[in-house]
Design a protein that fits this description.
alpha+beta, globular, 3 helices
């Protein structure tokens, strides 16, 4: 399993299941940095992502193909993040709520 980081490729040993030593928000930030360097982000996305990070988001990245101004951000302060995004020009902010997914019971 390889992860492209700004300072080079990091190699993580795979044992049975692919794992990565980085928290998901760090991977989100790194993924966005790579896409932005390749020209796949856009001004609107970069502005919203910077606003999210300035408001304390742990991680933020574009969503979809990158041209539509849609981002995903992880935070423990959704109200503060939402206010910051609206102030930065977001048309709306969605607050998805985690729900219990599929449960498999083995008897």
């Amino acid at each position: 399993f390889f992860f492209q980081a700004e300072d080079g490729i990091r190699d993580y040993k795979v044992t049975g299941v692919q794992t990565c030593a980085l928290p998901i928000w760090e991977m989100m930030n790194e993924n966005h940095a790579i896409v932005a360097r390749l020209g796949g982000s856009g001004k609107e996305n970069d502005l919203l992502i910077q606003a999210a990070r300035d408001a304390g988001a742990w991680g933020a990245k574009l969503a979809g193909a990158g041209g539509g101004g849609t981002i995903i951000a992880l935070t423990d302060s959704p109200e503060r993040l939402g206010e910051a995004l609206l102030s930065a020009g977001a048309e709306r902010v969605l607050y998805p709520k985690p729900v219990k997914g599929l449960t498999v019971e083995v008897s």
